[in-house]
Design brief:
The chain is α+β, with helices and mostly antiparallel strands. It has helices spanning about 5-70, 75-80, 115-120; strands at about 90, 95-100, 120, 140-150, 160-170, 175-185, 195-200. Strands 1, 2, 3, 4, 5, 6 and 7 form a seven-stranded mixed beta sheet that branches.
Length: about 200
């Protein structure tokens, strides 16, 4: 009696099919993983671009606030205490506030409609224009100028005043970056005022 030789061939075909299925599964998994990584990279790249754009806008607003203090259309007023609120806080518009060494004048959220009205828009008092791409419009950056009152019981140097500048820049979507700087104005009796940037920091 002869034995049939078909069973080993059937087993070989079955093994080949299993190997093929395993290889296809691995290829599909690798393809899915690669596509997921590319999506994550694209998302990270868009986020980085948006954050960079917002940071540059905030820096531009910080520079505009500094120029507003030095030679803007209201520079002479900003050298006087009377231009700022009588108590700690901000005017409803114009971006002028009164703070002190231990308390910020603005303690509200930076993404509120009140902040957009309170902060001064870029270029209003310096005549500059902020270029916005038509295909990706974003709000114009804004800033606050805060007169820093001396701490109780202290006497600041004569003819010297400190200001705290808070700038808010925007990027695509809801991206926002806030920067803050402290500047010093010293007006000698026999010369032009001297301005110095003492420090700066990111707020968000």
């Amino acid at each position: 009696m002869k034995r049939s030789g078909r069973h080993p061939r059937v087993r070989q075909h079955g093994t080949t099919l299993m190997i093929t299925l395993v290889m296809l599964t691995l290829i599909l998994l690798l393809g899915s993983a690669t596509a997921g990584l590319r999506l994550l990279d694209d998302h990270a790249l868009r986020h980085h671009r948006a954050a960079t754009q917002a940071h540059l806008a905030a820096q531009a607003a910080l520079d505009d606030a500094f120029d507003d203090l030095r030679h803007g259309s209201r520079a002479a007023q900003l050298n006087q205490r009377a231009a700022f609120p009588r108590t700690v806080g901000c005017h409803a518009s114009g971006g002028l506030c009164l703070g002190n060494t231990t308390r910020l004048a603005w303690n509200g959220p930076l993404d509120s409609a009140v902040a957009e009205k309170t902060f001064a828009p870029y270029g209003r008092f310096t005549g500059r224009r902020y270029a916005v791409a038509p295909e990706a419009p974003v709000p114009v950056p804004r800033y606050l100028i805060e007169w820093i009152a001396p701490a109780p019981g202290t006497r600041p140097p004569p003819r010297t005043q400190r200001y705290r500048l808070t700038a808010l820049g925007f990027g695509p979507g809801d991206t926002r970056v806030a920067l803050q700087a402290v500047v010093l104005r010293h007006a000698p009796a026999d010369g032009a005022p001297v301005w110095r940037r003492l420090a700066w920091r990111p707020l968000s």
